[in-house]
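Study this chain:
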Amino acid sequence: RHPGWLDGETLDLLRMYGVALALADSRWIKRGIVLELAIEPTADFAYVRWMGEQRRITDFSHLQIDREAELAAWVQALGALASRVQRVYGYFNNQYQGHSPESARAMQRLMGQAVVAPEMLQEQVELF
C-alpha cells in the first residue's frame, strides 16, 4: 500500500524468489503506476486486487460506481500480462463498485469470457 516499496530493488528481490507483487487498484497507489507494474510480473503468476476508493458504501447489493473505463484499462494490462504468467488471480472488494460479484462478471464480459448469471446457479445449501 505504500509506493516506496515499488522500487527496482524490491521488485528484483520478489523476482529472485518468485514472489508475485500484489497489484492493487486502490486509493494508495496511482492506477497508472499499478498498470505499468502489471505488465512486468515478478513471478509466474499474478495477483490483482480491485479495492476501490469509496469507504462510504454501506449497501453491497448492487453496483453503485461506474468503473467501465478503469476495467477497460485493466483488460489491456491483463491481456499483456497473460503472455508473461501462467495464471492471473483476481479479487474484487465490494468497495470497488458496490457489489463484488457483479464487478467480477463485468470484468469477465469485457474480457470476452462466459458469464454465469446468478439466477442460473443452484441455490446455496445451508452452512449450519
The chain has one domain: 3-120. Strands lie at 22-26, 45-52, 87-92.
